[in-house]
Amino acid sequence: MDEFIKLLDRNLEYVSHEIIDDTIYINVISTREEITCPYCGESSSKVHSRYKRSFQDLPMQEKKVKIILNNRKMFCKNTDCQYTTFAESFDFLTFKSKKTKRLDDKIINISMNLSSLTATNFLRNSVASIGKSTICNLLKKKRYQ
């Protein structure tokens, strides 16, 4: 399981998992020592707080995957920075996203050849818990990129 998590980010570490119905819930933590402030570029290792961030990923063994990340909020050490805290971010997730980028790509690829209703039903049953509006929003984003 740890190898699967390392595919997302080498700084993530597998903690535990649980299978409930058709979904695998995987708990992970970050092992980064220092995190760079996205606003000023200063590195910080001082933790402000922690919170759970959950997101969906590609299915595994015909089960949906939901990853629960124990995310850190950090203090910025730079006194000139206009922000005193910032949240840890990852390349495989966009800001406030509930799905990994690779899951977004899979949803777009499937929905390009099907109607949004057919794609929604197929994806809900086999890939991820999504709605028709999710597909429409992803296709709009792709069109404007």
Automatic annotation (TrEMBL):
The keyword ATP-binding does not apply. Residues 34-78 form the Transposase IS204/IS1001/IS1096/IS1165 zinc-finger domain. The keyword Zinc applies. Coiled coil: none annotated. Keywords: Metal-binding, Zinc, Zinc-finger. Pfam families: Zn_ribbon_ISL3. GO terms for molecular function: zinc ion binding. PANTHER family: TRANSPOSASE FOR INSERTION SEQUENCE ELEMENT IS1557. This is Zinc-finger of transposase IS204/IS1001/IS1096/IS1165.
